[in-house]
Every structure is written in structure tokens, then in C-alpha cells.
Design goal:
The structure is a single chain. The protein is an alpha+beta fold. It has 3 domains: 53-85 and 98-153, Beta Barrel (Thrombin, subunit H); 166-268, Thrombin, subunit H (Beta Barrel); 274-367, PDZ domain (Pdz3 Domain, Roll). 19% of the residues lie in helices and 34% in strands. The protein contains 8 helices and 20 strands. The strands form 4 sheets. Strands 1-2-3-6-5-4 form a 6-stranded antiparallel beta barrel. Strand 7 (174-179) and strand 8 form a beta hairpin. It starts with a helix and ends in a 7-residue tail after the last strand.
Length: 374
């Protein structure tokens, strides 16, 4: 009872002093609070300034301009109308349009990787570096099927980004998106890898996207997606949006694809891909059951191009392509990517399923034709 009374009196005295003269009470020394280490003993990272500081100088702003014919009223181009009024009202006019995007310097020689849709059909391309320098750029080549383009500037002492090993990346890894959203200037946003290997989105012909929730907006296209070490993970290329703004679903072309396409463009001026000459669709569980296939995998051949590689090998509509050179085919998108990686004129063994039986055929791979207008 004596202890309880003493404690009560002490608390009462402390309460009165804290109200009347708080300066009499002892104070703790202030300082910077750091995050404690996790279970593994490694301190929790609370800043990514090192990665941003390393990557930002190599990310550029790209400004493009092109001349567009503005169609005037048809009456102004009518010869009868011109006979009486001449050209005083004018005819077709040329208007200059501009757009902006981002790019990544990947070589000290001045090569910059960006999206094809950023520089496509541009008459002028200007690149602005983070250090304030600007220069005109020329297009080295482009690949519309992956939406990748390579441009070049003639400048020295250029900062560059190293390519990350995307094969080690996992869902949940932290990434930074760097670009020029809405033309406000270079901006860094943070997120995580939401998914890997996204395809069948209808964005590009060949799709293997990294999905991220890092904020990506118009102007970010062609910019860098980097890991926490400041290495290039991918090129930001598209967002899912109903309003034009970021909804937390962005897509980036992985750096492995970027490097393959970039090397081919610099070396050969374009990308050469294999071609089978078929139209395919996914094998659904319902289709698998109707074909008496054990599980739903592979690509159902819905059409065959006459005199194409598949036609010459004896493939026909209704066959199901199960494996290419021993590698199982997951679906039609996977089949397209596997075929594209094969070299033209190579003879490749493929496993197909026909009339309830599996059999092998040998196909001489063709060269994928370029689509008209590309």
C-alpha cells in the first residue's frame, strides 16, 4: 500500500510539472531514425537515390516533329472555283505537329533505344540530355513488331545504362520508371514488378512484357525501367488506361528483347525472324477434349499459307503443334515467339498431333515477311 501511494504521488507530481514547467523534465537527444535490420540481418532500404542517381543521366527526352498535310475544304481545290477566285482562299496546307517521349542511352557511341511509336514518321528528332545538352538524332532502324527503335546522336562523354539480368527478376521486385511524363521534365516513379511474361494484349506482334505498377504516363514511352541497382530492366512502352492517365498497370519490353533487337538493328539495319506460314489459335480445354488431347496446350493450326514452309512440310488445318525443336508449345503466342527466334532456312523438327496420334515433321523455316506499311 505504501508503494502504491508513493507511485501515485510521483505520477501526480510528474503530471503537474509536465503541464506547468515541461522544460524541467529530462529530454532525449534527437537523431535520424533508421529502419532496423530484418530477420536476415540486412538493413531495410528506405531510399533508392543511388539507383536513381546512376540511371537518370542516361535517360533522355525526345522531341519529334513532322509535317502533316491538312486537308482543306474540297471546294477550294475545285478548278471551276479557282477559275473565278484564284488561290486567294488557299488550298491544302502543311501543318507541323510535335510530340514527345523518352529514350535510353545504351552506348557511348551515341546509340539510344526508344519506342518505335515515339519516332515513327518523324521529320525531325531532337534529344535533350539530363545535363542540358541537346542534339539532333538520326534513325538507325526500327522494329514495329516489338515497338523498338534505335536512334543516334553525335555527342561525346555520354552516360550509359547497363543491362540487367531479367532472368533473375521476380514478381515483387522494386523497380523505378524514369521518363518525361506529360513533358513536365525528367521524373522518377517507384513500383514493383506486378507480373512477368505478359502477352496476348494486342499491343505488339511479339509480346513478353514486364508489368509494373510504377506510375507511367504519356511521355514516359521509351524511357527506362531500372532495378534498385540502377541497371536497365526494360523499356516502358504502354499503359492500361481508360482516361489516358496511369492506373497502375504499365508494360515494359524486357531488356533481353531490347538488346537482341538493338544489336540486330545496329548490325543489319533490321531484325530477321523465322516464319512458318500458319494461322494458329490457343487450345482451350473444350478443344482439347474434342481432339482427345490429354491437356490443353499447344497451338491449333487454323490455316496454312499456300506454298509456305508449313504447307511444304505437310502441315494442314486441324493439326495441333505440340513442340518445336523439342521445346513444348504453351499456346499460340509462345509458338509465335519460338518460331521468330529460329533462323531462316534452318530445318527444324516439330511435333504435331493429328487424328489422335502424335507424329514428327521436319520444316524448313522461312523468312518472316514484313507487313505492308512497316
Amino acid at each position: 500500500m505504501i508503494f502504491a501511494q508513493t507511485a501515485t504521488v510521483g505520477l501526480a507530481v510528474w503530471f503537474v510539472i509536465s503541464l506547468v514547467a515541461p522544460q524541467w523534465l529530462p529530454r532525449q537527444q534527437g537523431g535520424v531514425v533508421t529502419a532496423p535490420p530484418d530477420a536476415s540481418g540486412v538493413a531495410v532500404v528506405n531510399s533508392y537515390h543511388d539507383a536513381a542517381h546512376q540511371a537518370m543521366p542516361a535517360v533522355v527526352n525526345i522531341y519529334t516533329a513532322k509535317d502533316v498535310k491538312a486537308r482543306s475544304h474540297p471546294l477550294l481545290n475545285d478548278p471551276f472555283f479557282k477559275r473565278f477566285f484564284g488561290d486567294r482562299f488557299g488550298g491544302d496546307e502543311t501543318q507541323r505537329t510535335s510530340s514527345l517521349g523518352s529514350g535510353v542511352i545504351v552506348s557511348g557511341s551515341g546509340y539510344i533505344v526508344t519506342n518505335n511509336h515515339v519516332v515513327e514518321s518523324a521529320d525531325e528528332i531532337e534529344v535533350a540530355l539530363a545535363d542540358g545538352r541537346t542534339a539532333e538524332a538520326t534513325i538507325i532502324g526500327s522494329d514495329p513488331d516489338t515497338d523498338i527503335a534505335v536512334i543516334k546522336v553525335e555527342l561525346d562523354k555520354l552516360p550509359t545504362l547497363a543491362f540487367a539480368d531479367v532472368g533473375k527478376m521476380q514478381v515483387g521486385d522494386v523497380v523505378l520508371a524514369i521518363g518525361n511524363p506529360f513533358g513536365v521534365g525528367q521524373t522518377v516513379t517507384m513500383g514493383i514488378v506486378s507480373a512477368l511474361g505478359r502477352s496476348q494484349l494486342g499491343i505488339n506482334t511479339f509480346e513478353n512484357f514486364i508489368q509494373t505498377d510504377a506510375a507511367i504516363n504519356p511521355g514516359n514511352s521509351g524511357g527506362a525501367l531500372v532495378d534498385t541497382h540502377g541497371n536497365l530492366v526494360g523499356i516502358n512502352t504502354a499503359i492500361y488506361s481508360r482516361t489516358g492517365g496511369s492506373l497502375g498497370i504499365g508494360f515494359a519490353i524486357p531488356s533481353t528483347t531490347v538488346r537482341q533487337v538493338m544489336d540486330a538493328i545496329i548490325k543489319d539495319g533490321g531484325v530477321t525472324r523465322g516464319w512458318l506460314g500458319i494461322e494458329a489459335q490457343d487450345v482451350t480445354p473444350e478443344l482439347a477434349a474434342s481432339f482427345r488431347l490429354a491437356d490443353a496446350h499447344g497451338a491449333l493450326i487454323a490455316g496454312v499459307v499456300r506454298a509456305g514452309p508449313a504447307d511444304a512440310a505437310g502441315m494442314r488445318p486441324g493439326d495441333i503443334l505440340l513442340a518445336i525443336a523439342g521445346t513444348p508449345v504453351k499456346d499460340s503466342s509462345d509458338m509465335l515467339n519460338q518460331i521468330a527466334e529460329l533462323k531462316p532456312d534452318a530445318e527444324v523438327k516439330m511435333d504435331i498431333y493429328r487424328a489422335g496420334k502424335q507424329q514428327a515433321v521436319t520444316v524448313k523455316i522461312g523468312r518472316r515477311p514484313k507487313l505492308s506499311g512497316r
